[in-house]
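Each lists chain and fold; for instance:
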Amino acid sequence: MKRTATAVWSGTGKEGTGHLTTQSTVLNKVQYSYKSRFEQGVGTNPEELIAAAHAGCFAMKLSFVLQAAGFTAESLDVTSTVTLGDGVITSSDLVLKAKVPGISEAKFKDAAEDAKQNCPISKSLNTNITLDAKLV
């Protein structure tokens, strides 16, 4: 499988503006700028998109890990917070609140750790990844 996205940028790094479009057009000329990346401007930014990708990938991988162990999640609520510092992504911190009927705490923790280590986005990130996983 291959997916594409396009970024178009005009102007300088600080005063310029850009937009992002994905193959699926879920993002279609979505604005990004210096302000949306480093301040509180309107639009998205690359780090926010990485956080969304990591949260989504982790949730889906965990669903597969749980299924292989004989469990079905009622819900997996995942937040990823990506931190950018000194020009590099320094961490992706995953917070998971899960409802998984019938699973023990130990099996849940093992499954969550497996998903953290083995989801494709985790494998592609060269950064510190933390996980705070709770059954609710």
